[in-house]
Amino acid sequence: MIKERTIGLSVIVDIGAIRSNIQKIRQKTGKKILLMIKAEAYGHGTLGLVHKLQDAVDAFGVADTEEGAKLIECGCKKPILITCDYENPVSIVKYGFTPFVFTKAQIAELSKAADLYNRTIKVHIKAESGMGRFGTQNAEMSKALAIIIANTNRVRLTGIATHYSSGDKENVIRQNAIFREHIFEVERVSGRLLRHSASTLAALNTGGIYDMLRIGIGAYGYGGGLTPAMKIVSRIIAINRLGEGACAGYDNIYCAEAAKDIAIISGGYADGISRSYVGGYVSIRATAHRIVAVCMDSFIVELSRPCRLGDEVEILYPDNSAQDLAKHSLTIPYEILTSFKGRIKRIYNDTESE
């Protein structure tokens, strides 16, 4: 039985599973590992993981300086890569982060900030190879940026990176060919750099061919042979008897075809229980029960067998993973994992360190 709460969900995180997933990827590829821990570690909770996983990775990656500062505050000693923050050069220099760069303007702003703190900042060029997002658009642009960096005060180029749009083997081969062009031109200027790429699936499909892998969802258990680390549970807070034809939920979304018991479960769409979950299932007492309505603070299930007040309700669990929920909701596991927030309690299990 989970500890009682007035409202909301409990997120149970298996740190041992995350550590094991990282180790499996490292063993398969033989590469350095940068763990992406942005967006509350894909919903698993940044602060609860950083100090437990420092010995398992070579670096951490976050989206912006605010996320990076949280890592510093909780005692992170590993290098921190900033992937998407192009508006806070002073904070990047202040905390000693390593940012992705791909424009001349970024270099100029970082140089100014570095002068303020009288220190040198390390940067990695982000090369566009097929994602269509951030990055230098071709190898000549990467080379030109490397030349600018080489002639800029207090900015030092130490790495070059790209991001795969898909882990499909043919796509990875295609993007690698483009990325190699960037690497060749840049290293003619800079000398040998730290080369790295994402994603987990690409690494598992190709074995990883660069110096370091940026892994995200794979560390949290999604990919070939990996173990999901997150479980979501709640509890029954009310049980009602509906007569034949009686309805429940906003707009009478559910009407009983025959007399039925329904259970009201703590946690609603404000906590990450999407309205798209209607028609899906939760597990109570090792039995599947259908979700029939979702409200802001609670959701309703049709009971397929007798249950009691306070019974634990499994929402995300081995037989109903983020992959399963994503398929039901016509979305992706990333969106499922990162949606559980707000009024939640995170519980960390770490059997390996006990």
The average pLDDT score comes to 93
Topology-level CATH name of the largest domain: TIM Barrel
CATH class of the largest domain: Alpha Beta
User: Percent of residues in helical segments?
Assistant: 25-40%
Count of discrete domains: 2
Q: What about the largest sheet?
A: 8 strands, mixed
Low-confidence stretches: none
Total DSSP E strands: 18
Helix/strand-derived class? Answer: alpha/beta
> Quick one: overall form?
elongated
Could you tell me how far the N terminus lies from the C terminus, measured between alpha carbons in angstroms? 21 Å
Order of helices and strands: EHEHHEHEHEHEHEHEHEEEEEEEEEHHE
The CATH architecture name of the largest domain reads: Alpha-Beta Barrel
**CATH homologous superfamily of the largest domain?**
Alanine racemase
Topology summary:
Layout: E1 9-14, H1 15-29, E2 32-36, H2 38-42, H3 46-53, E3 59-62, H4 65-73, E4 80-82, H5 89-95, E5 98-101, H6 104-117, E6 121-126, H7 139-150, E7 155-163, H8 169-190, E8 194-198, H9 200-206, E9 212-215, E10 230-242, E11 247-248, E12 254-255, E13 260-266, E14 281-284, E15 287-294, E16 298-302, E17 312-316, H10 322-329, H11 333-338, E18 344-349
Parallel strand pairs: 1-18, 2-3, 2-9, 3-4, 4-5, 5-6, 6-7, 7-8, 8-9
Antiparallel strand pairs: 1-10, 10-13, 10-17, 11-12, 13-16, 14-15, 15-16
Helix pairs in contact: 5-6, 7-8
